[in-house]
Amino acid sequence: xxxxxxxxxxxxxxxxxxxxxxxxxxxxxxxxxxxxxxxxxxxxxxxxxxxxxxxxxxxxxxxxxxxxxxxxxxxxxxxxxxxxxxxxxxxxxxxxxxxxxxxxxxxxxxxxxxxxxxxxxxxxxxxxxxxxxxxxxxxxxxxxxxxxxxxxxxxxxxxxxxxxxxxxxxxxxxxxxxxxxxxxxxxxxxxxxxxxxxxxxxxxxxxxxxxxxxxxxxxxxxxxxxxxxxxxxxxxxxxxxxxxxxxxxxxxxxxxxxxxxxxxxxxxxxxxxxxxxxxxxxxxxxxxxxxxxxxxxxxxxxxxxxxxxxxxxxxxxxxxxxxxxxxxxxxxxxxxxxxxxxxxxxxxxxxxxxxxxxxxxxxxxxxxxxxxxxxxxxxxxxxxxxxxxxxxxxxxxxxxxxxxxxxxxxxxxxxxxxxxxxxxxxxxxxxxxxxxxxxxxxxxxxxxxxxxxxxxxxxxxxxxxxxxxxxxxxxxxxxxx
Amino acid sequence: xxxxxxxxxxxxxxxxxxxxxxxxxxxxxxxxxxxxxxxxxxxxxxxxxxxxxxxxxxxxxxxxxxxxxxxxxxxxxxxxxxxxxxxxxxxxxxxxxxxxxxxxxxxxxxxxxxxxxxxxxxxxxxxxxxxxxxxxxxxxxxxxxxxxxxxxxxxxxxxxxxxxxxxxxxxxxxxxxxxxxxxxxxxxxxxxxxxxxxxxxxxxxxxxxxxxxxxxxxxxxxxxxxxxxxxxxxxxxxxxxxxxxxxxxxxxxxxxxxxxxxxxxxxxxxxxxxxxxxxxxxxxxxxxxxxxxxxxxxxxxxxxxxxxxxxxxxxxxxxxxxxxxxxxxxxxxxxxxxxxxxxxxxxxxxxxxxxxxxxxxxxxxxxxxxxxxxxxxxxxxxxxxxxxxxxxxxxxxxxxxxxxxxxxxxxxxxxxxxxxxxxxxxxxxxxxxxxxxxxxxxxxxxxxxxxxxxxxxxxxxxxxxxxxxxxxxxxxxxxxxxxxxxxxxxxxxxxxxxxxxxxxxxxxxxxxxxxxxxxxxxxxxxxxxxxxxxxxxxxxxxxxxxxxxxxxxxxxxxxxxxxxxxxxxxxxxxxxxxxxxxxxxxxxxxxxxxxxxxxxxxxxxxxxxxxxx
Lengths: 481, 613
Prior knowledge:
- The complex is a heterodimer.
- Chain A is 71% helix and 3% strand.
- Chain A is mostly helical.
- Chain A has 2 domains: 11-185 and 331-478, no CATH class; 189-317, no CATH class.
- In chain A, helix 3 packs antiparallel against helix 4 and helix 3 (76-98) packs parallel to helix 5.
- Chain A is globular and about 75 Å long.
- In chain B, helix 15 crosses helix 17 and helix 16 packs across helix 21.
């Protein structure tokens, strides 16, 4: 093997260039949103304005990134992981008590002239701590005490952030589950988690019948696909879907409806539940080796019960205002504070951009102030409106390059600390991007989290820059030998 | 088949799929779906409507009946309003703080709907109030004034005829998609009938604005603006002076007067009494309740909506039909001994010489004569049975314009009623009725319903000796030539050669021995007229009169229908003849008669009914 000279030329410049493009582009767009009566691009250096301040933050972030890459040693981070984690937890708690309220959540802390959002930095420290724990010799994701350690590590900051009413930042932690999956956790845990959420949402926004039907179809799909009977599986599922669509129609026939006191969902659940129970018992007694099939059936049974308990809980236990919060979150009702308005305006802004966009500083929707939070959480609207589909896709591609590059590089390295941290950074960015862009185009509920590198906001920019810089440094260092 | 994916690739795949979903969604809303770009235009641009001046309405002599004055609507954009001096604004417009508070309460309860839009705060303020406001406008951020033209009525006449203009409501907008809330439209009368010409075209100025509704400038330097096109003036066929005079005659009476120029079908005067006073028209909303609670129902345009039995004037029609059918000649004589008696049927008549011929029968309005005429028409051996004869008779009657809408441009015209074979089959049973059963038709009673417009049209038809033009209120001009409906001669089924006999009868009615219309003699004018006394189960008979003058080359045909006025000669004939005198002579010589008519008070004879639906 030829020994290459290991210099800073060998840093991962793909990541750095993508990062720099995004940051610069973000700055331009913040200016475009807020330019006001300024007609010249040179007005961007007005430091009394937010876009001027953003430049200051960019310089601070770049300086920090430079320090991380050129000055601090790579092993510094492993050493500082626990103290930093503890420190940020303390900061989060302090924010709860001393913090400044903004937009209904108490997540800011005032230090001198700066306002910081500790929640942004908790992602870094949590990632570092997680990497430290998981890279310890003898760590196993199957070991109960290790699982408890990891769970505690993740749940503690989540709980505090939830108390701060920063639901969005808390959801980001879900990304860490993917990291655990990469490190050996069963994929079924994520799948089941995802299914649970899906069933919950389906039950509320459509009906328990749909939710139960979906459960049955997913079970059939999994059952046949596991036996590698793909075509048969698809046929069976297709037939089931047809049958399930017709059952409510059948029950509506007058003669049946007259003697039928139960809704369709109840009939379906009773019959399906009975069949499932029968097979569970039969498999347990006669074929004890078919454990997966049995467990899948148990999950299906639990799913049916879950759907009905969700419905009962939602209709009978929750009080009106709690129900309303869920409805608002799922977009079933218009938020009196105007979440529906925001979403509509946001989609109008993006949709009016067309293929090429209206041009830099020419957006009417964003620069005339129709879109709320336009320079922070809704910065993507400006991009969609002024740069069109091409600009929006370019941004998507840049993000995908960063995320996939992070994953590929992280996967390549032999150092578990670097790998876990790299995956954490990738998932953090991915979750932010998906939730934020998804929100602006109506695919996700409106959750206020920033778009990495593009949104106005010093804390987020600094935090995401720091994360990336640490990984670049770690990855660079791991190739040194 | 067995797929294998490393965990890394599974994660990459899932991320990739999610990004593809986002990209597809972006493609959908940015390229495929254009609703968003349309909405964005509405959002960012503010279209400020420029209301055009509504066209004036002129009478046949060029006198202005309706014109415009400038008033101002005070608009408010609730989102722009900051603290302001409530008392100052109350002082300017003479409001109570309570009113202002209620207005703002209603804005805040509709906050989401209003958004950044502006709402009317106060409508039609005078220019004095506007000036006072404009001086201090800087004190009231969010308030501004929009100029509007409001109607003024220089001639005190023709409230119902002109009709009113008011703000469009939701129903109206649904039927007329060009209109938007805040627009005005003619709702009745000429204003309604010629709305499309009077209203003009709205224009707009396009401004850039921001999310707070603040105007940021003129969009593309006004290249997108549209100027308002003022509505065109309308020249009507109405004689304002005559209309006004007629209304003074009709004061305190319930009924209608319609005058038509026979040679053109132009409506000279269209009076429904009691009517809406023009002083109330401009602010119809303010008076609406008062008007609609008036027991005599001024909203109801009797000239075209009140279909009632015509009484004896209908004898003219039966006479003409008899002549055409050959069952009657000038010299056919019938006896009358204070009425017509046949078995149990008795139709009374008044004392007059007997027997008499056709012109005399018209002049003296003999009931018995027309009982014979109708029976001869119905029992004509030409026809196999009475149903056939009746159908023929009905065809004749309808050819005079009865039983259907004439097609005039007076809004809400009714068709009236001419009975059919079915009417009597239902009433008596098929084959169980004969000419005697329908004898009241001979003298214009029974199941007949004619509007005063129908009767005026009858007078015009006879004046023209056999044809009529559909009555109309509008003069044609180069831009809008008259609709062909109004320029075609409509001949009746009766040969014009028979009409002079009837004209002679009408002339004798005014001048001959025993004529019932002597009161209608107008100095210097050769009048033709026919009285009618329509029996009325609800009270005194209705007084009816139709006439035209002069006998040769008639210039005016009039129908007067005075509810509960008694004999035709008592009220209807004097009123109609005064109209003729005014129109042809310009001034009234019969001042005594005029005074009697003007002082006549008949309202106490009119049974008060609840509002008609």
